Amino acid sequence: MWKLYHGWYILATLLPALAGSTTTQQVLGDVSQCGRPNVVFILTDDQDAHLGSLEYMPFVRKHLLDEGTYFNKHYCTTAVCCPSRATLWTGKASHNTNITDVNPPYGGYPKFVDQGFNENYLPVWLQQAGYNSYYTGKLFNVHTVTNYNSPEPAGFTNYDFLLDPFTYNYLNSTFQRKGENPKSYEGYYSTDVMSQKAQSLLQDAVLAEEPFFLTIAPIAPHGNIVMNGSALDKNPVFEHSAPIPAKRHELLFGDVQVPRSANFNPGKPSGANWVLDLPQQTQENVEYNDHYHRQRIRSLQAVDELVDDIFAKLEEYGILENTYVFYSSDNGFHIGQHRLQPGKSCGYEEDINIPLIVRGPGVAANQTTEIVTTHTDLAPTFFDILGIPTREDFDGNAIPITPDGINEASQRRREHVAVEYWGYAGGEGIFDRTLHENNTYKAIRISGDGYKFYYSIWCNNEHELYDMDTDPGQMNNLLSVPSSMDTTKSSPSAAIIVAGYPLNKIVSRLDSLLLVLKSCKGAVCREPWKALHPKRDVNTLKEALSSKFDDFYQEQQTRVAFDYCWNGYVPEAEGSMWEKDGLFFRDGLPWHVWT
């Protein structure tokens, strides 16, 4: 029998097992907290910032966008889930976690454990700082019904994880609660099950009367995947289809289409490497992609209801005013842009620019900021707002979330995002599921006073540069020139003016910055210009573009170049590296010599 509850349908028989027998009134009592703040982190899977998905989430609008601050220049640094999540939980870029794929040998939960992070990541640090930590939903890929307790994910007071091979199966999920065996929820809608589990964990957190950090990680709007085994099994078969919405949402948004932006299925090819060779999609293909887009939005409706239910509970427990709520995604998504099939894994804006919304004490309501932030910044941010001393090995900086902090940061915060990827890219629709090889690249997204650029170098050493002030769809690659032309030095490119500067000047600075960022650690990732300019007289691209540095950048610097393509992080393939053995090298000489 179906039962109406908080405006949506769940199985009446499911409630007692998920929510426990303690009543809301018993939990409430005099539970209002005024001490250390709490955090609720809602982390969706593959949610876009450029295809309009947030526009179809009225409860996210009501509780978060209208009452919080939206960071519209927030970026993941590796556009696929497992590496991105490892960055979220460690505060380290993928080249420092060496978790660069969704499956072994270069990624997945076993790789996370092998790298030693199960004893050294955010939940463990939170517990050490006196916080209870709770989690429901997807943690990592290849966290399975067979390896879930070998070892158990460390650092959690309680949890209820989704497990492979059922993680992405909307109608046949398997969860594993701490201390219990995995349990199948075949026939139940995954996000609805998770909403009840989240409310149960929130109740546990309130009853414990300790400050807490609760993560809720639904799979929507990721595609539906039916697996006959995990990546640890021999010859597993994955059947990938569009996301599946809850029954009550399956007929919504019948006329919605993928936004017809300039880069949507363009008549002229765009991009570089294998992207440049993609054929224009047929009308049948485009119509399917519109369907895929609608299914994504429909699947997010249950997430939107989950958000409403969590806020209702926070208000009932009297802790909303002392709780920060973060909403983000692991990576973005493209559908048809640059002729790409539904998917991610590229460095283009649709894949790396993702939602980040923050609501909580001191956070401005109904505000949007353009300060540059990344997933490497989230762990430092949680440390900052919870009063935990920062770690010097974080690759990111705490994100200012108050109006005064944001205003100050707009004057001096870093401009850059370091983007990296290794391995394959694959379409997730039905028209082209080719695994495109050599999808390994390093890139910079930079947004400063008077300029916005995306600069990338693929492992086949093709270069891209887009002036995103004039070309936000990244259609005109300013470096689509013969490979023999070095645009970092004196060349015909010097006659091309971009954002008021000769093209070769811009490229030489961005290339040197990328050389630092592609192997940086800690403070160097946070302030890479200081590695190039130890006198600390350069902090922005604009300052580096001074003519007094022309010879330094255009003649002296080693250029970024891959030695060969590889599907994981292998230093031998990466070409010149700025950081080696803890010392910074230039022209073969360590820091202490050339300074």
From TrEMBL:
Matching PANTHER family? N-ACETYLGLUCOSAMINE-6-SULFATASE FAMILY MEMBER, SD21168P
What chemistry does it catalyse, as a reaction equation?
an aryl sulfate + H2O = a phenol + sulfate + H(+)
Q: Which UniProt keywords apply?
A: Glycoprotein, Hydrolase, Signal
Q: So where does this one cross the membrane?
A: none
Which Gene3D superfamilies does this UniProt record tie to the protein? Alkaline Phosphatase, subunit A
For this chain, the family text in UniProt reads: Belongs to the sulfatase family.
Q: What is this protein called?
A: Arylsulfatase
| Residues with 3-oxoalanine (Cys) modification | 81
- InterPro entries referenced in this protein's UniProt entry, alphabetically: Alkaline_phosphatase_core_sf, Arylsulfatase, Sulfatase_CS, Sulfatase_N
GO biological process terms, semicolon-separated: phenol-containing compound metabolic process
Give the source's domain of life in one word. Eukaryota
Q: How is it modified after translation?
A: The conversion to 3-oxoalanine (also known as C-formylglycine, FGly), of a serine or cysteine residue in prokaryotes and of a cysteine residue in eukaryotes, is critical for catalytic activity.
Q: Which Pfam families does this entry report, sorted A to Z?
A: Sulfatase
Could you tell me which species this protein originates from?
Talaromyces rugulosus
Q: Where is the Sulfatase N-terminal domain?
A: 37-388
**What span is annotated as the signal peptide, if there is one?**
1-19
Q: What is the lineage of its organism?
A: Eukaryota, Fungi, Dikarya, Ascomycota, Pezizomycotina
Which Gene Ontology terms cover its molecular function? arylsulfatase activity; glycosaminoglycan binding; N-acetylglucosamine-6-sulfatase activity
* Entry's EC annotation: 3.1.6.1
